[in-house]
Amino acid sequence: MKNITLLLVLLILLPSISAVTLTVDELSENEVLIPGLGQTSFLLKITNHGPSDNFMFYNYLGFEMFPVGTVFIGNGQTKEVNLQISPIGELTVRGPYTFEYYIQGQDGTEQAERLVFRISELSDSFEIGSGEINPDSNSMTVYVYNKVNFNFSEITTQFSSTFFDFEETFDLGANEKKEFTVNLEKSDFDMLMAGFYTMTAEIKVGDDEITQEGTIEFAEKDILIETPQQYGFIINTQLIKKTNEGNTITPSETVIKKNIISRLFTSFSPQPDNVERNGFAVYYRWVSEIAPGETLEIAVKTNWFLPIIIILLIVSIVLFVKQYTTTNISLKKRVSFVRAKGADFGLKVSIHVNAKKYVERVNVIDRLPPLVKLYEKFGIERPSRINEKNRTLEWSFEKLEAGETRILSYIIYSKVGIMGRFALPSASAIYEKDGDLKESSSNKAFFVAEQRDKEE
């Protein structure tokens, strides 16, 4: 009878006995714990289906848990709790991890719960990369991406690559991507080929330091700059300069056209790879491949100095021949030193008259220079007229046969010393040829008086 009575009492009192009755929902996800960098957090939504109570969180797996102490949750109340855990000692486990913990009420009753998270290395937390660049770029974008649900503070990162080298300090939230703009110097990569290049980031978080690698895509671009120049007239220089400002090996073909005359006086540097002749035109061709940053220079020089001299010489010869063939009488005047008694110096003047063709009524006239007197002694041909006032001498011939030569000579002297270069005027001949009146002139004769005196 006593046992039945005790059972009835327990059945009556059972609903009033306190027990933990909670619903725990995890609001956060993909939590990560990185050993050596402190704790990880879980956002929990807890609903109390039992009486109001102060609840304590604890575990048996060697983790510290926060909050420390108790959390009050009233009857039927829902509360969000930021549960943080931190390992005590060193963790050797990596990968997915199931964490079992307990929520205990003040009456000693408890409820077991589980959390699943990943224990990850620091090196698995980041991704680095950059945007595409090309030879025209003045800047580029570099980024660091936090791949895990973990907040990093005061990250110091040293970025380095073929294109740049810089350092940044920053905070990086969970799954956050931080971008940096880097100014580029074209001289740092003007000789690089297109392709993929390695970018290195040395990331320091607290006392831990890791090295991450990413890639930079250097996009292909053909940029061949041609700068032609031309200068000079007599020595004409044509300079063609080609610079590869792209990042690929660029084929280059240069063609220069010359005619069959100018090619004879043209030199090249470097020599052309191919020469083709088409009619009166000659084509010179250079074929090459220019690497990034390299410059090809082609110099073509045409020297017109020699052909101009040849042309002038030919023109002079033609004019001389024409002059010689069209002149009926040729006059050549010469002067030589003679001793004159009672005079400082004396000169013998000779005029050679050569008839190339038959001419009539020939009158040869010569003029005496100033400061001299005429010596009254002549050669075979004596002047037909001497005009002392006009200081002229005249010789007259009725006719001269073709090929006939007459030598006219006379002597002049001076009692006054004459120094320096002494010039005698040219002689002239007036004659008739086939009824037309014509005229010819001789050369001028010169004498250096001082030089002759010293020799004497």
What's the SSE blueprint?
Blueprint: H1 2-13, E1 22-26, E2 32-33, E3 40-48, E4 53-58, E5 63-66, E6 70-73, E7 78-87, E8 95-104, E9 110-119, E10 126-130, E11 139-146, E12 152-160, E13 165-172, E14 177-183, E15 195-205, E16 208-218, E17 224-231, E18 235-244, E19 250-259, E20 266-269, E21 274-278, E22 281-290, E23 295-303, H2 305-326, E24 329-338, E25 345-355, E26 359-367, E27 373-378, E28 385-387, E29 392-400, E30 405-414, E31 421-424, E32 428-433, E33 436-441, E34 445-448, H3 449-455
Parallel strand pairs: 2-9
Antiparallel strand pairs: 1-3, 3-7, 4-6, 4-8, 5-7, 8-9, 10-11, 11-14, 12-13, 12-15, 15-16, 17-18, 18-23, 19-22, 20-23, 21-22, 24-25, 25-30, 26-29, 26-32, 27-30, 28-29, 31-34, 32-33
Overall residue-averaged pLDDT value: 84
Quickly count the helices: 3
Count of separate structural domains: 4
In which order are the strands of the major sheet placed? 2-9-8-4-6
* Residue runs with pLDDT of under 50 for 5 or more positions: 1-17, 451-456
CATH topology of the largest domain: Immunoglobulin-like
Biggest sheet, in brief? 5 strands, mixed
The end-to-end distance, rounded to whole angstroms, is 183 Å
